[in-house]
Design brief:
heterodimer, A: about 425 residues, alpha/beta, 2 domains, seven-stranded mixed β-sheet, three-stranded antiparallel β-sheet, 16 helices, globular, B: about 425 residues, 17 helices, about 10% strand
């Protein structure tokens, strides 16, 4: 009773009750528009000589104006959509050499020959990339499975030897993709487990080895279980009639929302587009299949819609020691807006994503870049910010849902200290 | 000797009818009742802890359902469950160490234990400790034995050892109950002395010539301020009256009786006076796991005023008020709406509030919530009987006092054994 009423449910019912408005015909519309805008539109069209590729789209816009879009913005769109001929000529002149260089794809294809194995036919990086292909498998799980394969293929006879081999393999894995945080965190976690297990528990080497392999294989199950635990823990925070803003495509967040649907909760989701990977489009597609009411926003529309939002829910690529998160570019922006409007920001992340990093600002991480397609070739003198992710400091996060429980950001450093020190 | 069930029913009745006021009294009575339940419970030789836990959960479930808003009941039930688990754990690790020492010497015992890998006592102790602590990164990759597995290995060990253990078993069962009751006595003692323990810290926080603001009346705050007065600190107190119950009036009277300079103000005057105040000291109804506070109505406003003027907002809370749950919708779920007669006089307003007039429902609604939720970022310091803590430290206290298995008090339909 103290929350804003869920008017979207009432609106939906109202819209269903009313008959949909009849589709308007273009000629009647041009007549119904007030006199000043059409002449300006036509004059602009007349004065500027657009290149041929744009003329057809412009003509379309003028012939079928959508009645809901004001003519003012239509003309502005047409105006800004025009690219002058010198810009195009300049861009095309340097288009060819510009495209392939400078776009460092974060960990795309493995280096041929596999950076790791060091001459042996078994290559840990190849193994890792094999596992990574599966869409539902988290990176850390793939890494740990690869390390388990290393143990299996190893000919070591003592624990020390095995540890050294594993350390080498883990380092080569980390070097093959320096930008992936969950990969690093997964490797570190497994190495830590190995060093702790060997000392105390087993006097016999083979049983220790088999136990390590068994635990590593089981880790995939842990990952699945982790998602379910997180989904269960977050159920109480999703109440009927709430509006959730999500950013980026996270399998954990999808699991949370799926479980909420299974528990018959009524809610709606605002999905940001997530340029340039359009991850939001993918997520909204999946949510629409679940019969959740989804609204897509462009990334810049977040502040505009923030007052209708009840909570922000994001996943994380990595959770750092300060309790902050590293996630898709745009998360920091959304967290800032949410914080200034007193909306809670919840993060759903599995515990193996906790990494021993402490970024002090945005540039303090290994840069991870990705290609951005602006739709037109970019001239050489124009620089593009290609970073794929940003760091959200802990003071903008409210709670983290992990398989270790619901945590406040300050608990994260405590957990990491207990593990590593 | 009165029947346990009658006493349980009595307490249930008191909780349902809200006859017990305040978390302190509720906590004490709950703890005393649970101690009685434990001492009267007959427990079998094997799986003793599980039987005790079951019995306590059965009573606890009913008590919590009787008054869900009184979080102290649930807190004490969970504290007792944690005590049972801890005592059981310490007893079984002692037995385990003793068992392994003797198992190594004679070979016949090993044949029965082929299916279990040979683990050193240290590893078993470490594993059992992990079952009690909340899941952490350290245990992520380990195969956590179920709580059933630990007594299982001990019982299989007992079988292989034969008759020499049976005498130990019965003494163990007596020891468990004894230890648990001792620990519960300590808990009751802690609850009773929580006011004194908090008041002892008053001198460190209240300095000479300070101005303190408080709202409504809290016994903890009263004793805190009086303790500072005893130590010859001279300071002044602003008391906001705390409508609609006006308990601030009573507090003001008490303070004056103890010789403190007091000023009484209306709740609406808090924002006006806050700039002249050095510190705000208030009590709490409950402290949630994220550091948020369920406090008497009006304190959220005081907290916001304090933040606006950079005045420290100090919350006094005994450890029995610490709740391991997260507040999802505290304004509704953890709130109680009291009678509108505290606001309006029924006689004068009877026509506005009359259901019989015209529409069928009155146009005048009166809402009288008891509690307010203060988010953790507005609280500067928590003073508990264990000392002063940051709101972000609350999770550590919870990990010390409670086990994660007990967060949900409903028992599973099939008993886990």
């Amino acid at each position: 009773m103290w929350r804003r009423s869920a008017s979207f449910i009432l609106d939906k019912e109202d819209n269903a009750a009313q008959p949909p408005p009849p589709p308007a015909k273009p000629d009647t519309l041009t007549l119904s528009l007030s006199s000043p805008p059409p002449p300006t539109a036509t004059t602009i069209a007349a004065t500027i000589n657009p290149p041929s590729s744009f003329s057809s789209s412009m003509a379309d816009t003028l012939q079928n104006p959508n009645p809901k879009i004001s003519a003012y913005y239509q003309t502005r769109a047409a105006h800004h959509g025009v690219v002058s001929s010198d810009w195009l000529a300049q861009a095309q002149a340097v288009a060819e050499p510009h495209l392939p260089e400078g776009w460092a794809r974060s960990g795309s294809a493995a280096e041929p020959g596999g950076g790791g194995g060091g001459g042996r036919p078994f290559s840990v990086t190849d193994e890792f990339n094999n596992w990574r292909q599966q869409p539902d498998l988290a990176e850390a799980v793939a890494a740990i499975r690869a390390l388990a394969a290393v143990i299996r293929a190893s000919e070591a006879t003592t624990m020390m030897e095995l540890e050294i081999e594993l350390k080498k393999a883990s380092d080569s894995l980390k070097n093959s993709d320096t930008t992936s945080i969950s990969l690093t965190a997964g490797c570190d976690l497994f190495m830590r487990y190995v060093t702790r297990t060997s000392a105390l528990e087993y006097e016999e080497f083979n049983s220790a080895k088999s136990r390590l392999i068994e635990r590593a294989e089981k880790f995939g199950e842990i990952s699945q279980k982790a998602r379910r635990i997180i989904a269960m823990l977050s159920q109480d925070f999703i109440f009927d009639g709430c509006t959730i803003l999500v950013h980026g495509f996270s399998r954990v967040v999808l699991e949370v929302l799926k479980t909420a649907v299974q528990n018959k909760k009524v809610f709606r989701v605002f999905c940001t587009e997530g340029r340039p990977d359009r991850s939001g489009l993918r997520l909204s597609n999946d949510l629409a299949k679940l019969d959740v009411s989804v609204k897509l926003l462009i990334d810049s529309a977040v502040a505009y819609t923030m007052d209708e939002v009840d909570m922000v829910l994001v996943g994380a690529d990595g959770v750092v020691e300060s309790g902050g998160i590293i996630n898709l570019m745009g998360t920091y922006q959304i967290a800032l807006v949410a914080h200034s409007m007193n909306k809670p920001v919840y993060v759903a992340a599995e515990s193996y994503k906790f990494a021993r990093l402490y970024p002090l600002d945005q540039k303090d991480m290994v840069p991870a870049e990705r290609p951005i397609d602006f739709g037109v070739p970019i001239p050489a003198k124009v620089e593009v910010e290609k970073s794929a992710r940003d760091y959200t400091p802990p003071q903008y996060l409210t709670l983290l849902f992990t398989d270790l429980g619901v945590l406040t950001p300050s608990v994260v450093s405590d957990e990491l200290i207990q593990l590593y020190l | 000797m009165p029947d346990v069930q009658t006493l349980v029913n009595e307490l249930l009745f008191k909780l349902k009818k809200r006859k017990i006021e305040g978390s302190h009294a509720t906590a004490r009575q709950t703890a005393i009742l649970l101690r009685l339940v434990i001492s009267q419970q007959r427990i079998p030789y094997t799986h003793q802890a599980a039987a005790l836990i079951d019995a306590v959960k059965a009573v606890g479930e009913q008590l919590v359902a009787a008054n869900p808003v009184e979080l102290a009941v649930g807190n004490i039930v969970r504290r007792v469950l944690h005590i049972i688990r801890e005592e059981d754990l310490s007893l079984s690790t002692v037995a385990m160490v003793g068992l392994n020492v003797s198992a190594v010497s004679d070979d016949e015992g090993d044949t029965d234990q082929d299916d279990h890998p040979v683990l050193s006592a240290a590893a078993v102790a470490a594993a059992s400790r992990n079952t009690l602590r909340p899941p952490s990164l350290q245990t992520l990759l380990e195969d956590l034995p179920d709580s059933a597995a630990v007594p299982h290995t001990s019982s299989s060990g007992d079988d292989s050892e034969g008759k020499s253990k049976s005498a130990d078993k019965s003494s163990r069962s007596r020891r468990l109950k004894h230890d648990v009751i001792e620990a519960v006595n300590e808990l009751i003692e802690d609850i009773s002395t929580s006011h004194e323990q908090i008041a002892e810290q008053a001198v460190e926080h209240i300095h000479q010539n300070e101005v303190i603001l408080t709202l409504g009346s809290s016994r903890t705050v009263l004793e805190f301020l009086c303790a500072a007065k005893e130590k010859k600190r001279s300071f002044r107190v602003f008391v906001a009256e705390g409508a609609p119950r006006y308990q601030g009036h009573l507090l003001a009277k008490e303070l004056v009786a103890r010789g403190l300079q007091t000023t009484l103000i209306a709740d609406s005057a808090v924002f006006a006076m806050i700039s002249r105040v050095n510190m705000v000291i208030v009590g709490a109804h409950a402290v949630m796991a994220n550091g948020g506070v369920i406090a008497p109505v009006g304190l959220n406003m005081v907290a916001l005023a304090a933040q606006r003027h950079a005045v420290p907002f100090v919350v006094l809370a005994g450890s029995h008020k610490l709740c391991p749950l997260y507040p999802h919708n505290p304004e509704v779920l953890l709130n109680e709406l009291r009678s509108p007669s505290e606001l309006l006089d029924f006689g004068e307003f009877s026509d506005c509030m009359d259901f019989g007039s015209g529409m069928g429902s009155p146009l005048l609604h009166v809402v009288n919530p008891t509690f307010d939720y203060v988010p953790p970022k507005l609280v500067s310091l928590f003073i508990t009987d264990t000392g002063g803590h940051n709101p972000s430290y609350v999770y550590r206290l919870i990990a010390d006092y409670y086990s994660t298995d007990d967060l949900v008090l409903q028992r599973k339909p099939a008993p886990v054994n």
